[in-house]
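Note to self: keep these together.
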Amino acid sequence: MSTQTTKILVFSHRPEVRETIITAVGRRPAPDLARVEYVEVGAIADVLYEVDNGTVDLLILDGEAQPTGGMGLSRQLKDEITNCPPIVVAVRRKDDRWLATWSQADAVLVHPLDPLAAAETVAEVLRGLALPVVKG
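Structure:
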């Protein structure tokens, strides 16, 4: 079995939101994908640092983060970063999906998070990265 891991950055100013996202997605979103290592950040500067240094494979951004929400941050990253990692935005209301589309997010999660739906959504985005597949 491969020791390859996928690094996912989870951004929210609230630690309990980061924990909810990590718990819902899990350490292995699908059996055919590598295990996940999470990078938890609570500040925009930390998100920018990780993205600029190319240390993460995927970002999950809290759409309700303060003072800057994940949707605005997603739009900024997609506009300014060449080869920006895929971004999943977590929103509070189903009706906010259109804002996530505006933000150029690759996928959307809606609170309350359903662990099956969250894991599958993240797995679909990860599969699109053409990362090494774990056989086992």
